[in-house]
Amino acid sequence: MTEIGFISLKNKGGFVVRLEFEYFNEGTNKWIRTGGTGDITLGFSAKANPGDYGVPDGCLVRLHANVVWGTDKVSNEMFSYKRSNGGIASYSISGTTLSSHLEFHGISAISVGEGLDSVSLEQANILLDYSNLSDEQLNQIKADLESAPLAQSGSYGPLSWDISFHFDPIDIKKSRADVQIYAYGVNIIAAQLDVQNPKITVDKSIAGVGVIVELGLDFNSRKIYLKGNLNFVIYTKSFDLTILSF
Question: Which residues on adjacent β-strands are paired with residue 106?
Answer without folding.
Answer: 90
